[in-house]
């Protein structure tokens, strides 16, 4: 299992597909085996990790696994203890109640890099900083949570995913580093990669969630032909059976539309 950490800069899209207006992950990662596990919005910054392990994304983002993601958040206004307590209890959003978050007020850290372009500045309205940790992965969740308690987010930087700490790694925006998964407790209980499971297989309580789809091969390595009668849609045009008649069958000339007037 390979894991690469990236400090995603502001205005970078979390995708490899080229974009005419914005830089993408392809500008920083050139390994075709790596896939994104845990995206960040274009206007968010900080820790992203990429992996070649197929099930790691779901493992990290599933709330049941309690893998907290920590964000340094600059908000509009001086955030109050009352607002922080609301975040700790859970906030009602348009897609339901959030799980309780960890939220504390912090000072602007010394290690923080400058953002380009900078956050808008208003002399009449102060800004403040909070550290918020959640174990969910809803769309723009932290931004919606702070707005719901009256303090819209101005800047958002993801600093941790589980025990992976961007500050400890010392990565500047745009820098990457490959890490050793065995050094992090978060990855000791990651399930092994499983073969594809068909959706037609009925999931049973306590089961594995689907029957593995494994390709059958002959001793020489060639694929085995499926037994049984092939379906019409699986046949070539010349193999399809033709309808047998006694010669008296007439073509269907009935109109299936409205009667002509």
From TrEMBL:
The organism's place on the tree of life at top rank? Bacteria
Gene3D superfamilies annotated for this entry?
Answer: Alpha-L RNA-binding motif, Pseudouridine synthase I, catalytic domain, N-terminal subdomain
Family matches, as Pfam families: PseudoU_synth_2
What does the entry give for GO biological process? pseudouridine synthesis; rRNA processing
Q: Specify where the region named Disordered lies, as residue ranges.
A: 187-261
What family is this?
Belongs to the pseudouridine synthase RsuA family.
Record protein name field: Pseudouridine synthase
């Amino acid at each position: 299992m390979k894991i690469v950490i990236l400090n995603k800069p502001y205005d970078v899209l979390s995708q490899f597909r080229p974009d005419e207006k914005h830089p993408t992950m392809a500008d920083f990662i050139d390994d075709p085996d790596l896939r994104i596990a845990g995206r960040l919005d274009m206007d968010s910054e900080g820790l992203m990790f990429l992996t070649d392990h197929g099930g790691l994304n779901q493992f990290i983002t599933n709330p049941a696994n309690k893998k907290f993601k920590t964000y340094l958040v600059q908000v509009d206004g001086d955030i109050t203890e009352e607002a922080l307590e609301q975040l700790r209890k859970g906030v009602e959003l348009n897609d339901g109640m959030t799980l309780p978050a960890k939220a504390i007020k912090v000072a602007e850290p010394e290690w923080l890099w400058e953002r380009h372009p900078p956050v808008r500045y208003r002399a009449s309205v102060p800004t403040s900083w909070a550290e918020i940790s959640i174990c969910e992965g809803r769309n723009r969740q932290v931004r919606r949570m702070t707005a719901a308690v009256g303090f819209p987010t101005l800047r958002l930087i993801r600093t941790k995913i589980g025990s992976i700490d961007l500050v400890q790694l010392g990565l500047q925006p745009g820098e990457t580093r490959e890490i050793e998964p065995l050094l992090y407790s978060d990855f000791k209980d990651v399930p092994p990669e499983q073969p594809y499971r068909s959706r037609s297989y009925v999931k049973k309580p306590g089961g594995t969630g689907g029957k593995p789809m494994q390709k059958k091969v002959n001793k020489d390595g060639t694929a085995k032909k499926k037994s049984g009668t092939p379906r019409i849609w699986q046949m070539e045009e010349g193999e399809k059976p033709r309808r047998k008649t006694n010669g008296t069958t007439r073509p269907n000339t009935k109109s299936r539309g409205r009667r002509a007037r």
